[in-house]
Amino acid sequence: NQRRAGKSIEARFEFMRRFYIPLVLFFTIFLVLLPCLPTMPATYLSLFTGLVAGLFGLAAKPVIENAIAGMVLTFSQPIRINDTVIIDDQYGTVERINLLHTSIKIWNWRRLVIPNNKLLQKEIQNLTIGDEWEWAYIAFYVEPSVDINKVKELAKAAMNSQYRDPNEEPSFWVMDLDKDSILCWVAGWASDPARAWALKSSARRNLVESLKQ
Prior knowledge:
The chain is an alpha+beta fold. Helix content is 48%, strand content 24%. The protein contains five helices and eight strands. A five-stranded antiparallel sheet has the order 4-3-2-1-5. A three-stranded antiparallel sheet has the order 6-8-7, with helices on one face. A hairpin with a 2-residue loop joins strand 1 and strand 2. Helix 4 packs across helix 5. 18% of the residues are buried.
């Protein structure tokens, strides 16, 4: 915690050094030149005003874009706080939607922070909108010489988990045949995306142990 606090303070001072010091210098020069402005030729005054406006617009552009995107996200609500989403192949939960950026708590408890104007351009899978029930399946390969009925029995048994909906039995399919392997799927229903993720994880572990035996 002490090390993290030290890094946070260091980062803030670095930001202040890079942003505020040039800003203070700019305004100091502006205040020094302010008494001379009435006596300056109109051409130089126009150039100076245009330069200031251009620099301000360039600096403010990302902030304005993100702020507008933040308002669009707030009113259109493609995602909401606590929604379960997949963004850039990252599975997580929407933790915070600020004016400038959105924070996603991903599966390993780290935070994916995305500027709002970038987020509007991404494809988002919102697993919370609509029906939260999810068909959780896992795919695996076995050798062509195996007893496929035994594989089916083991695969369905591997789906026996506290995370699966007990009202419907797991399903098993042979999805593809090859000279070196057989592609199989086993699936079951889970009541929400988080339980579906846990179901798939536990089923893979159970299946690995069963096939080893």
